[in-house]
Amino acid sequence: MKGQNKLFIAIIIALILGVGIGGVVHVKYPESAAPFSNNIKLLGTVFIRLVQMIIAPLVFTTLVVGIAKMSDIKMIGRVGTKAMLWFISASLISLFIGLILVNWLEPGHVTKLPIQDVSSAEELLKSSKSFSLEDFVKHMIPKSLFEAFATNEVLQIVVFAIMFGVALANLGEEYSKPVVKLFDIMAHGILKMVGYIMWFAPLGVLGAIAAVVATNGFEIFKVYAIYLRDFFFALAVLWVVLLIVGYFILGNRLFDLMKRIKEPLLIAFSTTSSEAVFPKLVEELEKFGCNSRVVSFILPLGYSFNLDGSMMYMTFASIFIAQIYGIEMTIGQQITMLLVLMLTSKGIAGVPRASLVIIVATCSMFGIPPEGIALILPIDHFCDMGRSMTNVLGNTLATSAVSKWEGQLTEPLDKI
After folding, report:
1. Lowest CB count within 10 Å: 69, 99, 355, 356, which one?
2. Any stretches that span the bilayer, and where are they (predicted)?
3. pLDDT tens-place string over residues 177-200
4. Would you list the domain boundaries of the chain?
5. Helix axis angle, 154-169 to 133-140, nearest 10°
6. Structure confidence at residue 170 as a pLDDT band (50, 70, 90)
């Protein structure tokens, strides 16, 4: 735990230094802000790429081993059903909280935002127009496992790994045992790499934060203060709901769990990447006492189907854009929008800026000018910080809850 505390402190220091360095460059050397930003954010790029390097093999090996070791197909179905029930319930709650609070707080009515140049949203608009049911199916079902590995398509890897794991489970121990043992050793080797890679996290945090502040300065916080205030208030409400549910299920062990995931939460917040902490989450959840088979089965699924922070943001941002343009939506229309978002958002976690793509597509469907996405693009990075951290919390609680329901939550493997 001493090493973990050191890492946590190092990340906090890097966060403060990043804001300070970025602020100095923005104020004192504005003409150098762009090149400085491009150079220093390479630190963040190095960290993210190191993590991305191990995500595909880690998801594949842990998921195959987890399912193959279950051997009981009924158990796989039971665990999967419980996980999907949690995912659907959490998604609906997240969407409803966003819907209720954006209607109550009305940030689009009280905020006078400058109309942004819509050219900044052109690429996003093109992405949303091409999104269809056909694209969704292609995004979910792999054409080639090697292509899925090469492009880090987590959902496609999950689909193949589940099918392969079920096949191994039904093959008989004589044939499957050597393969399962090999993948188990590989998974543990990759998890060992996680410890080394996490020490790059402070540099990644410093680079990512310094780049954003150097480019945008502190003014962006003033211009969008009300929107950010209301959004993070809504996130706080979602956190309270998730933690209350978590406490009912886990009891006092919830506090132990939160201590263990403080670094993953901070890294996700600083780098706006929930993927960046996936390997660390696997490690911490197993140390917490969650069954390794359940962890390796549910956590990858959660990264595709259980993005609570992103779900809440979708309703919040969609209605916000409608408010900015003075478009009044009936309760019926808003409920319909919520259900549309519920369906269209599943399984697109691998799409860059997936939440924004879905928001644009939904706005077009309901007669809201999709160009309005340009209004929130300048601060999407800051909103994404909150979204990513909330996604990590939601997936942590989902995995822990299902482990508890399955009677597979043991005492911690180490002492905190």
Report:
1. 69
2. 7-27, 47-71, 83-105, 154-172, 193-214, 226-250, 319-344, 356-379
3. 888 889 888 888 887 887 788 788
4. 1-406
5. 50
6. confident
